[in-house]
Amino acid sequence: MTKITKDMRYVGVNDYEIDLFEGQFVVPKGMAYNSYVILDEKTAVLDTVDIKFGTEWLDNVKKALEGRAPDYLIINHMEPDHSANVRNFVSSYPDVKVVGNFKTFVMLSEFFGEDFTVNKVMVKEGDCLSLGKHELTFVFAPMVHWPEVMVTYDKFDKALYSADAFGKFGASDADEAWDDEARRYYFGIVGKYGAQVEALFKKLSSFEIKAIYPLHGPLLSENISHYLDLYSKWASYTPEISGVMIAYTSVYGHTKEAAELLARELKENGVENVKVCDIARTDFAACIADAFRYNKIVLATTTYNGDIFPAMRKFIDDLTERNFKRRIVGLIENGSWAPMASRVMTERLGKCKELEFTENTVKIRSALNDESRVAIKALADELGK
Ligand code: FEO
Hints:
Helix 5 packs across helix 9 (284-293) and helix 6 (194-204) packs across helix 7. Strand 12 and strand 13 (135-140) form a beta hairpin. The chain has 385 residues and is α/β, with parallel strands linked by helices. Helices cover 34% and strands 24% of the residues. The mean pLDDT is 97. The strands form 5 sheets. It has a 7-stranded mixed β-sheet. Strands 17, 18, 19, 20, 21, 22 and 23 form a 7-stranded mixed β-sheet that branches. The radius of gyration is 24 Å and the shape is elongated. It has 2 domains: 2-236, 4-Layer Sandwich (Metallo-beta-lactamase, Chain A), CATH 3.60.15.10; 245-380, Rossmann fold (3-Layer(aba) Sandwich), CATH 3.40.50.360. MU-OXO-diiron binds next to helix 2.
C-alpha cells in the first residue's frame, strides 16, 4: 500500500511469476495490476486485481481503509486481471455498493453466476458519484479494451482512472522507459480500436487531466502531455518517426543478407532511423509495435508452399487485424523456382487502407546477384527520398 495523494492510496500488486500476459505477450519484467482507494467522507475502491493476488490485495485495501468500511467498489473493467476478486471483496465487505454500467453487470453474471443485485449501483454515461469533496464522473470507453470499459474522472484531483488505457507491460518497479513497453502493450492489446480510443479522447477533451492512473504500469503525474500526445498518434495510426523498418524472414540467410544490404544503402542515403527485424526470432509484439512506429516498412520474405513464410504471414495478419494504414510499403521477395511472395504479400495487405507501395520491388532468385543488388539500391533510393 502506498500513499499517492492526501486522499488516494495505491493498493495494486506485482506479478513476477507470470509467463505470458493474456496468454500471449512475453513480460520479462512482470506485470502490475493496479487498484486504488480514495478516502473521503465516503470511501471508494477502484477495481480489483488478478485472482492470484486476492489475499495480498485485500490486505492492501484493509490497510488503506485505516479501519473504515469501503462504501463503493467501482469496476472500470471486467477483464479478470482486474475483476477476479469482486466476489472475494463483496464477501469481505457485504455492505459495499458495487458500481458499474449495464454491461458490467451482464459480465459479472457471466463470470460469477450472479450480478450482486443487493450491492448493485448501475451508472450511465456521464453520471457522477460524490464521495465528499471528490466527485467522480464515469465516462464510457467501449472497446478500450472491452465493451463494458469505463474510465473514472476525479474532478477534485483532476485525475483520470484510465482503465487499460495508458497501461504498459512490466511490474511497477520495472526500470525501463515508458514509451517502448506502453507501445508494445497498446498495439498488442488495443491497436485494433484506434477509432474507439479517439472517441474516448473526444469525450475527455473538456476535462483537465493532471494525473493518469491506469490499471497497469506506472502512475503518471508529470509530463502528461507526452503520454497524451503518444496515445493520440497511436490511436490515429500516425507514425511516430520518419524512418524505415525492414521486417524479414530468412531460411538460409540470403533474404537476411538482402535486408541488411538495404539497411546499409538506406543509411548511406542519409536515412537515420532504420530498424532491421528478423520477425521469426524477435518478440512478435515488439515487431508489431515497431511497424506502427515508423512511417515506412519493407517486408522481405521467401515464397513458401505456394504462399509466404509462416512468420511473415502471421506478421501481416497481425498488422491488418490492427488496422495498419498510412504507411509506405516496399517488398522484397525470394524464391528459388517460382517466386510469388510479393504478389501474396500485396494481396494479404489488401485489407489495409491508405498504404502506398513503392515503385521498386526486389526479386531475388535464391541468392543476391548483381541484378538484385541494383534493385535493392533502387529501392533504397526511392525510400530515401
Ligand atoms: Fe488489463 Fe483488458 O485488461
